[in-house]
What does this fold into?
Amino acid sequence: MEIQFTPEEIAKINELKALYPQSQSAIMPVLWMAQKKFGWLSEDVMRLVADVMDLTYAHVMGVASFYTMYFKKPMGKFHVQVCTNVSCKLRGADEIYDFVKEKYSIGHNETTPDGRISLEEVECMGACGGAPMIAVNEDYHENLNLDKVKAILQDLPQ
It folds into this structure.
């Protein structure tokens, strides 16, 4: 697969850059856009982002490596994030994390051999009032227990 943005994507990147007094401030939405397109931020993808943003590779890598929302390796088709921060932990997050880990025989930032499921233990996802919570890709699920988690995972398409 050739790593490049389409003319439409370049136009969108230019729109994003124009929103800020300094165009480099658009780096986060552009990285997000790249990750959604390519699945993860490989070195080649980060170099492409650096080129279109007129930034150094080191700057792009610095931003991408600081934030856990950017994947620096391929993740599963369904990326399961389990919040284990204080509120979630007090309401059973460790049990949920251990269940997912054992169900798929994977650990933190690992992916099943078929590439279907990846697991990540994350810090606060901003849903303390709905603890415990997980995210599957960009779908957030709150006020969970093991039965609800089992149903969510069972409903994932093959």
The helical segments are 7-18, 27-38, 43-53, 57-66, 86-90, 93-104, 146-154. The beta strands are 78-83, 110-111, 117-122, 134-136, 139-141. The two ends are 24 Å apart (CA to CA).
